[in-house]
Design brief:
It is a single chain. The protein has a single domain, classed as outer membrane lipoprotein receptor (LolB), chain A, CATH 2.50.20. It has a ten-stranded antiparallel sheet with strand order 7-6-5-4-3-12-11-10-9-8. It has a two-stranded antiparallel sheet with strand order 1-2. By secondary structure, it is mainly beta. The longest helix is centred in the middle third of the chain and has 10 residues.
């Protein structure tokens, strides 16, 4: 847990100072996204390792069990040693958070299901949840969430999994699916 806490602290700083309107998730400073309905995405289960690279070269790792089925998207985040840190379940457009350990103030665990949706849901379903001035572009294996023409998140599929990058925040998350 102590090893993963710095990653949680940094993620808590990413969304910025402004709180979202009802039903929205802050995915970057001053950029909101309205969660899609879980049934708009594919049914799946995956156990994934998330390797975070922060500014200054610091790295952290977490494990996430992600399932989308039966009208619910569930994300369970654990430390590499298996301690559950928090669970987020999205039903409809409402996300319920169950934090098993004290989370830093300002941390919005809803960011993870928002990023899952941005990576995996059909582009048209995602576009309906974008705030004015925000666009989603898809070019083959790469999606870019843009705010006023600047990249907020870039999500690229590569042979090993997904790479999520937030250039302005200096954050990279490499996601690889663990063995079934």
């Amino acid at each position: 847990m102590r090893r993963f806490l710095p990653a949680i602290l940094l993620l808590s700083a990413l969304p910025g100072c402004r709180g979202p309107a009802a039903g929205e998730v802050v995915v970057a400073p001053e950029v909101t996204f309205r969660l899609c309905l879980p049934e708009a995405g594919p049914d799946f289960f995956a156990l994934q390792e998330m390797a975070f690279s922060f500014p200054g070269g610091r790295r952290e790792t977490a494990v996430a069990a992600i399932e989308n089925k039966g009208g619910a998207l569930t994300v369970v985040v654990s430390s590499p040693l298996g301690q559950t840190l928090f669970t987020v379940q999205v039903r409809g457009r409402t996300a319920l958070v169950d934090a098993r350990v004290p989370l830093p103030p300002g941390l919005d665990p809803q960011l993870l299901p928002a990023l899952v949706q941005l990576a995996l849901w059909p582009a048209e379903a995602l576009r309906a949840g974008l705030a004015p001035g925000t666009t989603l572009q898809q070019d083959g294996p790469r999606r870019m969430l843009l705010r006023k023409g600047r990249a907020v998140w870039t999500i690229t599929r590569d042979g090993a999994g997904l790479v999520l990058e937030s250039p302005a925040q200096g954050l990279t998350v490499r996601v690889r699916t663990l063995e079934d």
